[in-house]
What does this fold into?
Amino acid sequence: DQQVKQNSPSLSVQEGRISILNCDYTNSMFDYFLWYKKYPAEGPTFLISISSIKDKNEDGRFTVFLNKSAKHLSLHIVPSQPGDSAVYFCAASARDYGGSQGNLIFGKGTKLSVKP
Amino acid sequence: EAGVAQSPRYKIIEKRQSVAFWCNPISGHATLYWYQQILGQGPKLLIQFQNNGVVDDSQLPKDRFSAERLKGVDSTLKIQPAKLEDSAVYLCASSYEMGGYTFGSGTRLTVV
It folds into this structure.
């Protein structure tokens, strides 16, 4: 049973336009969400995160939106650049009974292609 | 700061053979993770260490997989014997605090 779902395996966007990557989760206990970016032959690199007490977090061209009632988050990249072409993973975690943040649960990823 | 180092980068073995992967985390990072990423899927946690103690190994197939973290620094992950379905990228990550995961480049294992 997948707790973190990225239903779009791929997305193609024109350079300069907005890229929107979506992620849904099923576990209502998740309270911390992250996006990772992965280039071929490299490990995932942290991009941006959001805590459940917020509904938006922005860092330069990257903005993550969280809709807790819908259990949905999205990553917006504006404007998209060819160098943004990579696989983007959504990840989530929940605090355990001791209050410590739990391990990250990853989605399957969305491959973004930004065309010049 | 130096990143998470992993070796080898690639490994091809026959089924039923043994293989070991090595990871050197970022200096000072107490928490170390091993993830398995099968093609087309997201990374899946295999084991988490806090210093040299195991915090979570609930998803580690213990009949064939083993891992250790010597002196709370370097770690090795071993598969013995390997199966075809073990073909994946094995990622090591370390963190100082939650959200600060740094991943290594991974070891791509192909079992034939």
In short: Chain A has a mean pLDDT of 93. The CA atoms of residues 25 and 71 of chain A lie 5 Å apart.
